[in-house]
Write a structure and sequence with these properties.
heterodimer; A: 284 residues; MetI-like fold; 13 helices; 75% helix; B: 340 residues; alpha+beta; Rossmann fold; OB fold (Dihydrolipoamide Acetyltransferase, E2P); 2 domains; 5-stranded antiparallel beta sheet
């Protein structure tokens, strides 16, 4: 009887376990294994070498690229947090009717009806040298010559990131905010707190789990991105993802794999640090 | 300390669009009294409390505390403090920080506010739990912390929104006593919203029975119980039978209804009444043994079910069973004529 029960339990766990095994464990294990392989211009040679890691970690290009990627992640995180928190606050606390809240919330998701790439490309005619932004500013007489930094720069990369990923901040923070008991805000007011004091002392601490979840989304996505950087920097900026993509286009799969493992460890470290600071299980 | 002030509500009105939640009520709550706002849900009692607290805008009328008109002041500037129904403790702060919250908002330094918070926690016997988060406390403990938090600003009036409704019955009675003794010690006014007549009776110096946004009666509990002002009050307070005046053969013309306390009723099996007492013929519907008393429900044709509360001894002297015909009788002097 007991033995049957144990088998039933395993059977129940099996489908999900298989999915994870096939689509998460096996690919990552493959990447780790390949990262130790040798390669030449035409083929990958099974081996166990530390050479890929040595080449990667001893190159100054790697360090600069990682620094650049971290910088993108940090700036994007700060901006999406600021904008996302503000938007969520507005919808959660300033909009009174729940119908209007739903409508505004759905409005936020409209950009997701098109693909990331299209949303990115749509910035190009707007920001270009003879784009809408420059033409308008020049017609208004505010500038004499086109602003060069608008497109194909770090500015445009961060702009695209913020545009693409702010919603990932809005959703979990909004969710956190909707869980805040409204009587807490009244209690704060009763205790003489101003609007700002309520925000800092009550709302912000209670939104921490939402902020943490949003931050994990944004940071992990930006750390692994290569399309946005390629499109919006016009090849002038680099990112770790782009580095891997370049290696792969030269068929240097083991080098790319080693880079992927390093990036994975770095991102896991960042996520672990965030989880240490905030207990996100409260939200789940 | 200055003499605590009276509170006066002057034709206080609250409208939500076309609906009138509180309809031009007038009330004077003497300094240092325990006042219970009593009524069924939706009667406007919580809205009234929230208007006094400053969490609800007043549509019309004034709220006077002492000699000051506080109608439009922000909550913290009124000299009132509110204890919320679900206590509304900040879940991310421990007991000390919860209690010290309003001092922090005023920019009191950390040392001072924490020691002051600990004083208040001691007063409600919660100093042993100072470092705990609200989620680690029981309902009764949370309530004590909420009390301490409300009292730290030395309010002149404490407003309590159904403070006991979240507690189990046993704890409710104990916290009820504590609230009363705390109020006596502090000497400030407590305004307590409740839908439980027992709670209001046990606690209040002044019971304010509300219905449909109006005050039905504002009087000490004994007066409310012995001389209910209206049929609504008599029914809501309980322990009364409300009869059409014609049926009770009492001073017709003064009012359409009379009230007779259920514990002044006599019940006798049989079909003929005694001389010299008014009586009704009915059929026993239910007999409930409640310990020291027995509650007998009686159906009388043409009336709502009437009840008689008999002491165990009186019931045992002439017991009745459900389904038996009975005579329900009372003394003329126990008939109270209702105003409306």
């Amino acid at each position: 009887m007991n033995r049957v029960k144990v088998w039933v339990t395993y059977l129940q766990v099996a489908p999900l376990a298989l999915v994870f095994l096939l689509f998460l464990i096996v690919p990552i294990a493959t990447i780790v294994v390949v990262s130790f392989f040798d390669y030449n211009t035409t083929q990958i040679i099974p081996a166990f070498l530390l050479q890929n890691y040595e080449e990667l970690l001893l190159s100054s290009v790697t360090w600069r690229t990682y620094q650049q990627t971290l910088q993108f992640a940090l700036i994007t995180w700060a901006l999406t947090l600021l904008i996302g928190f503000t938007v969520a606050y507005f919808v959660a606390f300033h909009v009174r009717s729940s119908t209007m809240q739903t409508v505004l919330f759905l409005l936020c998701t409209i950009p997701f009806w098109t693909s990331n790439v299209i949303r990115m490309i749509s910035w190009i005619p707007f920001l270009g040298r003879h784009g809408l932004a420059n033409t308008t500013l020049m017609n208004l007489g505010l500038i004499n010559q086109p602003l060069e930094f608008l497109l194909y720069s770090d500015f445009s990369v961060v702009l695209a990131y913020v545009h693409l990923y702010t919603l990932f901040m809005v959703v979990p923070i909004f969710n956190s905010m909707m869980r805040i008991d409204r009587s807490l805000l009244e209690a704060a007011r009763d205790a003489g707190a101003t609007g700002w004091q309520t925000l800092v002392n009550v709302i912000l601490p209670l939104c921490k789990p939402g902020i943490a979840i949003g931050s994990i989304f944004v940071v992990t996505i930006v750390m692994g991105d290569f399309v946005t950087v390629r499109m919006m920097s016009g090849g002038l900026s680099a990112s770790v993802g782009l580095m891997m993509a370049n290696a792969m286009s030269l068929l240097q799969y083991p080098a790319a794999a080693a880079n992927a493992v390093v990036l994975l460890l770095l991102v896991l470290g960042i996520v672990a640090a965030m989880m240490r600071m905030v207990d996100i299980r409260k939200e789940l | 300390m200055a003499k605590p002030p009276d509170i006066e509500l002057v034709s206080l009105t609250k409208r939500y669009g076309d609906t009138v939640a509180v309809d031009s009520i007038g009330l004077r709550i003497p300094a240092g009294s325990y006042c219970c706002l009593l009524g069924p849900s939706g009667c406007g009692k919580t809205t009234t409390l929230r208007m006094i607290a400053g969490h609800e805008e007043v549509s019309e009328g004034d709220i006077i505390l002492g000699s000051e008109n506080i109608t439009v002041l922000p909550p913290a500037a009124r000299g009132t403090a509110m204890m919320f129904q679900s206590y509304a403790l900040f879940p991310h702060l421990d007991c000390t920080d919860n209690v010290a919250f309003s001092l922090k908002m005023r920019g009191v330094d950390k040392e001072t506010r924490r020691s002051r918070a600990l004083d208040l926690l001691k007063r409600v016997h919660m100093d042993a739990y100072a470092g705990r988060l609200p989620s680690q406390l029981s309902g009764g403990q949370q309530q004590r912390v909420a009390l301490a938090r409300a009292l730290i600003t030395d309010p002149q009036v404490l407003l309590l929104d159904e403070p006991l409704s979240a507690l189990d019955p046993f704890l409710r009675i104990r916290m009820r006593e504590e609230l009363k003794s705390l109020q006596t010690r502090l000497g400030i006014s407590f305004i307590h919203v409740t839908h439980s007549q027992d709670e209001a009776m046990a606690l209040a110096d002044l019971v304010v029975v509300m219905n449909g946004g109006r005050i039905e009666q504002a009087a000490p509990p004994r007066e409310v119980f012995n001389r209910p002002a209206s049929a609504f009050v008599a029914k809501f307070i309980g322990g009364h039978n409300v009869l059409p005046a014609a049926v009770a053969r009492a001073g017709a013309g003064e009012g359409p209804f009379v009230a007779i306390r259920a514990d002044r009723m006599s019940v006798q099996a049989g079909t003929s009444g005694e001389a010299g007492v008014t009586s009704l013929q009915g059929v026993t519907r239910s007999v409930e043994y409640l310990g020291s008393t027995v509650q007998v429900g009686i159906d009388v044709t043409g009336l709502e079910t009437l009840s008689a509360t008999l002491s165990e001894a009186r019931f045992d002297a002439s017991p009745v069973r459900p389904g038996e015909p009975v005579i329900l009788s009372w003394k003329p002097e126990d008939v109270h004529v209702l105003g409306r």
